[in-house]
Design a protein that fits this description.
binds glycine, Rossmann fold, 351 residues, Dehydroquinate synthase-like, alpha domain, seven-stranded mixed sheet, alpha/beta, 44% helix, two-stranded antiparallel ribbon, 13 helices, 11 strands
Length: 351
């Protein structure tokens, strides 16, 4: 088992281990000895696969267990689902000493975390991510949210989990596309902070050592979150490829997966920033073969003007300026605040 510790406003462990799903009950009871009832929140793709294993483990450890399952997908990440979960918790009499478990990918983790933050003004919360993307990114760091009609992740809270359990066995049930989504975020971590990881995933395949790769990514994220939990500075490095990536996702009406969009965003940013004179070297020739190796796209069919218009409405823009993540070398990126119209120049040059 690999364990990474996070020391943010709340301190917690992230445990990475094959087969840990069957020990959820033991893990939760040693963490939360006063908890009697646990609500497992999941979706209708994940719960049929792993719900019984998790709820049995909880019941065997003496927990009174209830489950709430909603339809899989981004379209469920809204205030209706949130309110339904809150009503379910209230109807089932959960108290502040009880616990919510998110069993699923990023949507389940984000919405369950937000429900945990607001139900009774905060109850215990454990993440069990079941996608590679959620393991290396969204389950750690305490960003929780739902989408509003006017945009993605616009209502949420910073609310750290108390434990994160990553069972690498579940990765074998992911579709090729879902697996590739996680690979894009892993390549992002390698680009922003870790040349050794970049070399490892270039020479070998991520699936050859999931525990090492996940532990390395989570350790990078843990240190960043410890330095900047509330996303005012260094944490924005995690957005490498995301500003353009979000625009690609929106232009495609979310038919392009998050990881694919981020892959395209990383290439356009690397090439465009170099040609715009913002970096000394073009890193896209190093990135493109690595992204292709993990079945990720490296270009989009949208025009720079289409992407720019969507970027301008992105919530990450503050005033007239936008903070961009620019590569300086493999394993090192920097943040640069630039006038928002500079993004159009980068998009035109990076296309
Ligand atoms: N997913 C980026 C962050 O947690 O800040």
């Amino acid at each position: 088992m690999e364990t990474v510790h996070v020391n943010a406003s709340r301190s917690y462990d992230i445990k990475i281990c094959k087969g840990i799903l069957s020990s959820v009950g033991r893990e939760v009871s040693s963490l939360l000895p006063k908890t009697k009832r646990v609500a497992v929140i999941s979706d209708d793709k994940v719960f049929p696969l792993y719900g019984e294993r998790v709820t049995k483990s909880l019941s065997d450890s003496g927990f009174d267990t209830v489950s709430y399952v909603f339809p899989n997908g981004e379209h469920s990440k809204n205030t209706d689902t949130l309110v339904n979960i809150l009503n379910f918790l209230g109807t089932n009499g959960l108290t502040r000493s009880d616990c919510l478990i998110a069993l699923g990918g990023g949507v389940v983790g984000d919405i369950t975390g937000f429900a945990a933050a607001v139900f009774l003004r905060g109850i215990h919360f454990v993440q069990i991510p079941t996608t590679l993307l959620a393991m290396v990114d969204s389950s750690v760091g305490g960003k929780t949210a739902v989408n509003l009609d006017c945009g993605k992740n616009l209502a949420g809270a910073f609310y750290q989990p108390e434990l994160v359990l990553c069972d690498t066995d579940v990765l074998s049930s992911l579709s090729h596309e879902d697996y590739a989504d996680g690979c894009a975020e892993i390549i992002k971590y390698a680009m922003i902070k870790d040349k050794e990881l970049f070399d490892f995933i270039s020479q070998k395949h991520i699936c050859e050592d999931h525990e090492y790769v996940i532990r390395t990514c989570i350790s990078i994220k843990a240190r960043i979150v410890e330095n900047d939990e509330f996303d005012n500075g260094e944490r924005q490095l995690l957005n490498f490829g995301h500003t353009i990536g979000h625009a690609v996702e929106k232009c495609s009406n979310y038919s392009i997966h998050h990881g694919s969009a981020v892959a395209i965003g990383m290439v356009m940013m690397s090439k465009g920033a170099y040609l715009a004179g913002l970096c000394d070297k073009d890193y896209s020739p190093a990135l493109i073969p690595l992204l292709k190796k993990y079945s990720l796209p490296t270009a989009a069919e949208y025009t720079p003007a289409q992407l720019y218009n969507v970027t301008l409405s992105d919530k990450k823009r503050s005033g007239a300026d936008i903070t961009l993540v620019l590569p300086q070398e493999i394993g090192k990126c920097i943040l640069k605040k630039l006038p928002a119209q500079e993004v159009l120049n980068i998009l035109e040059k990076g296309s």
